[in-house]
Amino acid sequence: MFFYICHMNQKIKSRETQNLIINSAFELFYKHGYNKTSIPEIIKGTGLSKGAFYHHFKSKRSIGEKVIDLTVRKRVYERMVAPLKNLDNAPIIPLLYDVFIKRIEGYSDLEKDLGCPANNLINEIGYSESSFREMLRDIIDHWQEIMVNLLEQGKIKGEIRKNVDTSATAIFLISAFEGVRGIRKVYNNDKILDEYLIAVKSYIEQLA
Amino acid sequence: MFFYICHMNQKIKSRETQNLIINSAFELFYKHGYNKTSIPEIIKGTGLSKGAFYHHFKSKRSIGEKVIDLTVRKRVYERMVAPLKNLDNAPIIPLLYDVFIKRIEGYSDLEKDLGCPANNLINEIGYSESSFREMLRDIIDHWQEIMVNLLEQGKIKGEIRKNVDTSATAIFLISAFEGVRGIRKVYNNDKILDEYLIAVKSYIEQLA
DNA sequence: TAAAAAACATACTGATATGAATGTTTTTTT
DNA sequence: AAAAAAACATTCATATCAGTATGTTTTTTA
């Protein structure tokens, strides 16, 4: 590692520039969608030029893939997946409450208006762009897998009913969560989220 | 009415041309999304010219509104809302089965791949385009309203538990349905839909 | 310290977009 | 049948896009 110390400045600079562009792109994809966002728009906020963009990324699809891989995946993982890994062997039901209920209650107005970045991309370009599709599917797969582990663990600990289909339950919870975040986008108030919260609360309770 | 018979040819022609354009636009919005679809592309399949398009519709937004109002709303209504109106006083649970389970089982591969037209639009432009937002919200509101009526009717008839929150249940079912249709778009197989079906089946049963 | 390479900026190309302006044909009215 | 209007087609204006080519500056290497 020490051999490269004298080269590190440039690599760090490069990485920082890429992050700058990726962050700007993520914000715009989130606010206006992938197709509505142009490369001139992405670089506008960064103070960089189009030459700089195409030095670091070879195409628009390429920046899309980076945004999904680095930002979107990370967000879903940190917020929805990691808390369900349950490394300290906590009770299952409260964990599900945290992720599927408390998480939503803590959203900002902007996050409510704009929905879930992953779900937005899934719906906008999930089918048409195959490289995106695979990456987005991996995100969902991973999320589901961790939930299945958690629910199976809950069965063993006697906290989840034995006759619960864990794969099905996982997809159902994920679907309802992403679905309501989409539907919320066409409302300007919390009515829809409040109703979802009531229903998902009783659904989770009923798993025990 | 008879006074206008001699004028009807032109009005019918106009209406037919508009429908031709609207149908082409719907297909393309459904396949490629609203933002990816251009007016030249819309008219390409119809044999008409751009002048014809702008004679009948004043802008791209305008055709978007027409597509939502006439085609998208109609589809949701015919498939998901009308069957739940229960005009002939049928049992409630089988009705929910029909709409939220059998309906999905009968989808073509294309419908599975492309998701729900209404949900696609909600997620792509639900927040950014306010005229669209209001129309899409009306579709969901109507759907929810009919479901609430159905579930309340079910309570009276003793087919639905008294402690079921009907508004919350309606939004939960709608969210899960739209959510899974979105998530399915990034898969190439029926795994996700099959799992959803298992879960929603037991959820509906548990309402009784 | 000179050469090489990486990190940028500037200027351009070709394609395509929305929409308007204008011309032509068909239908309706008077 | 002539005039008016509706239903189209053609052409144009303006803007913006993704991506490229070619510069210039800064950093690294030798």
Q: Class of the largest domain in chain A, according to the CATH hierarchy? A: Mainly Alpha
CATH topology of the largest domain in chain A: Tetracycline Repressor, domain 2
**Assembly annotation:** homodimer
- State the CATH architecture of the largest domain in chain A: Orthogonal Bundle
Q: How many E-type strands of chain A?
A: 0
CATH-wise, what's the superfamily of the largest domain in chain A? Tetracycline Repressor, domain 2
Tell me roughly what share of residues is in helical segments of chain A. Answer: over 70%
In one word, what is the shape of chain A? elongated
Structural domain tally of chain A: 2
Mean pLDDT of chain A: 95
The number of helical segments of chain A is 10
Largest interface: chains, residues each: A-B, 51 and 51 residues
Decide which structural class fits the backbone of chain A: mainly alpha
- Strand content of chain A is under 5%
End-to-end distance of chain A, in Å? 51 Å
Outline the low-pLDDT stretches of chain A: 1-5
Order of helices and strands of chain A: HHHHHHHHHH
Walk me through this protein's architecture.
Two copies of one chain form a homodimer. The first copy, chain A, is an all-alpha fold and 208 residues long. Chain A is built from ten helices and no strands. The first copy, chain A, has two domains: 1-57, Arc Repressor Mutant, subunit A (Orthogonal Bundle); 60-205, Tetracycline Repressor, domain 2. In chain A, α9 (166-183) runs antiparallel to α10 (191-205). The termini of chain A are far apart. The relative contact order of chain A is 0.10. Mean pLDDT of chain A is 95; it is low at 1-5. At the A-B interface, α7, α8, α9 and α10 of A face α7, α8, α9 and α10 of B. The first copy, chain A, binds a DNA duplex (30 and 30 nucleotides) through residues 6-7, 9-10, 13-14, 17, 38-40, 48-52, 54-56, 58-60.
